[in-house]
Amino acid sequence: MKSRTIIVSAILTALFFGSGLQAQESAYKAAGVEISADKVRLKGRTFYSHAVKEHQTLYSIAKAYQVQIIEIVEANPQLELNTKPLRTGDILLIPFKPLDNVIAVPMTELQPSLPAVQEPAEPAVDNTADNAEAFVDAPEESVQEPGPEEHPALSEEALVWQSEEGFPSDSLFYYWNEPLASDAVKVSLLLPFDADSSARRNYMNFYFGALLAARDLTLEGHPVDLHVFDTMSSVPVEEHAAVLRESDVIIGPVSNADILSVLPLLNRHQYLVSPLDARSESLCADNRVILAPTPASVQIADAMQWVKDDMLGGTDSLIVVRESNYKPSVTEMLILQELDLDNVDRLIEVDYSLSAGLEMNEWFEIHTHLQDTVTRVVAASEHDIFVKDVIRNVYLQNNLKHNNVIYGPAKTRSPEMEEMCDARLHSSVTYHVDYTRPEVIRFVSDFRALFMCEPDNFAFHGYDTMRYFVSAAFTYGRNWARHLPEFKQSGLQIYFSFQKKRKEKGMVNHGLRRLVYSPGFNLDVSDCER
User: Fold this and answer.
1) Is 250:190 a contact under the CB 8 Å cutoff?
2) CB < 8 Å & 24+ apart, contacts of 385-389
């Protein structure tokens, strides 16, 4: 009975606030409602996408769009409008109906099959290496574009989200029905939508995040003219050379081979943004390629410099734990190179084998003086299970009242938050999302409302990448790439800070986020650059 009363009260409140009753208007004046230019296509139906402004009500919104309140409630189950009040910033899906004073724009008939609804994601962490493994090639499949006879009124000027060759059949297509402003930034986005099923979801989420960034920029007065290409399509990329050469910002493709095939099609002043795969760092020296994600080598260099800075001028000791019975990996060699062990005082090197059952307390029994000083620990390995076990041992030692701190790049982490906090992990990462930030909360809410699933780190990455490079173009014009070293931006997940090296044509992002875990489940996050 109690729950039924709450539901009725919520509905009555919504009706009263927008009913126009004199008693309500004296205390609350509903804001005017403008018909949104944004539309989405979902499960064969067309919806307006309406961003709720201050003082707007369900009644006033329904009246403006000529629909019933219950239709809005049923179209937005994730907002629970039958039990919760409408909030400023909510994104409403409103059933599309031709209105008397609005010119309806035809939309390409797509039947999207969205990714399955996922459980709320944990805070995103860097997974550059994992991302690289997800980029698996798949056989090309032709994607048919609807012919002009199906949409006789469709015009290029009417569409902002316009594919040059058609979108994959499982995409959610997004249109605006107003012509572009003359000062719009023209963006070409090239992604392998027809990759295998697991990678496709990653690319689609990146695309969805990029769409939200383009929408937000346009609402802020910086319109975006977005052209999207499927690099796995049977249509060769050369056929789109004219569009690419007219683009202000080019994001993608992903793989090195695709990047090298696109570069010859561009003008001499144009740069290509490599959005996801850190392995394209190898192309940046000799080509006009800008690497958006910070590579692992930069993470390692920063983490090891962090160790040396913290030890400078003190009496602390350093334990470097290496994995025995394995050939040294690139990660291990980079760690040892950056530490420069020949010049480290109070150094203890340990060969550690999981199979041998060696525990960290044996090191402390041998080096008893460590009990009275701070001990800095580095796990020189790229194997997750080994690194996790070193963190576990540091965690156990700190619970025995030892004073240890462990350092490392993004892959230095444990699945247990308590272990990372009690081990006092210091980590340099490319990706990290603080879910308490208002802008992150807003992004998650918008993403859920529009795409009916949880945003993952690919979605955050798409948003940050689109927003950063388009913002640079608006700030500096077509020569924006020359100004990137002075244009720093802290995104939802990434910190962008580029460095231009002499005699190199491209640039690599050196922006990082330093994470400091401490007992009591505390986490301190700061942007930095290496």
Assistant:
1) yes
2) 385/354, 386/323, 386/352, 386/354, 387/411, 387/412, 387/413, 388/413, 388/414, 388/415, 389/354
Q: Are 286 and 312 spatial neighbours (Cβ–Cβ below 8 Å)?
A: no
When the pLDDT of each residue in the chain is averaged and rounded to a whole number, the result is: 76
Report for 22-26, 68-72, 172-176: range of highest mean pLDDT? 68-72
Closest CA to 174 of 153, 189, 195, 192: 189
Burial class (CB in 10 A: 0-12, 13-18, 19+), 300: buried
Please say if the pLDDT value at position 158 is more than 90: no
Peptide bond into 98 cis (omega under 30): no
> What CATH number is given to the structural domain containing 234?
3.40.50.2300
Assess whether 467 and 387 both reside in one domain: no
Residues 286 and 390 in one domain: no
Do residue 163 and residue 288 come from a single domain? Answer: yes
Domain span at residue 21? 2-95
Identify the pLDDT of residue 27: 34
The DSSP 8-state label assigned to residue 52 in this structure reads: P
Tens digit of each residue's pLDDT (9 = 90 or more) over 19-63: 332 333 333 344 678 888 888 877 778 888 898 888 888 878 888
pTM above 0.85, yes or no: no
- Res. 303 pLDDT band, cuts 50 70 90: very high
Mean pLDDT, residues 140-151 taken together:
34
The CA-atom distances, in angstroms, between 458 and each of 51, 249, 277, 492 are: 24, 19, 12, 12
Cβ pair 299, 410 in contact under 8 A:
yes
Element (H, E) at 406: strand 404-409
Is the pLDDT assigned to residue 17 strictly greater than 80?
no
Residue-wise burial string across 177-196, b where 16 or more C-beta atoms lie within 10 A, e elsewhere = beebeeebbbbbbbbbbbbe
pLDDT grade, residue 428 (50/70/90)?
Answer: very high
How far apart are the C-alpha atoms of 227 and 289, rounded to whole Å? Answer: 19
Q: Which residues of 214-242 are buried (b: 16+ CB within 10 A; e: fewer)?
A: bbbbbeeebbbbbbbbbbbbebebeebee
Strand partners, 428: 409, 514
Q: Are 374 and 347 in contact (CB under 8 A)?
A: no
Taking the chain, what is the end-to-end CA distance rounded to the nearest angstrom? 60
Angle value at C-alpha 174, between 172 and 180, nearest 5 degrees: 160
- Which DSSP category does 121 fall into? P
Q: Rounded to whole angstroms, how far apart are CA atoms 11 and 368? A: 69
Q: Are residues 383 and 455 in the same domain?
A: no
Of 364, 337, 35, nearest in space to 176 by CA: 35
CATH number of domain containing 87: 3.10.350.10
The residues that bridge with 370 in the sheet, in sequence order, are none
Q: Say if CB 413 and CB 425 are below 8 A apart.
A: yes
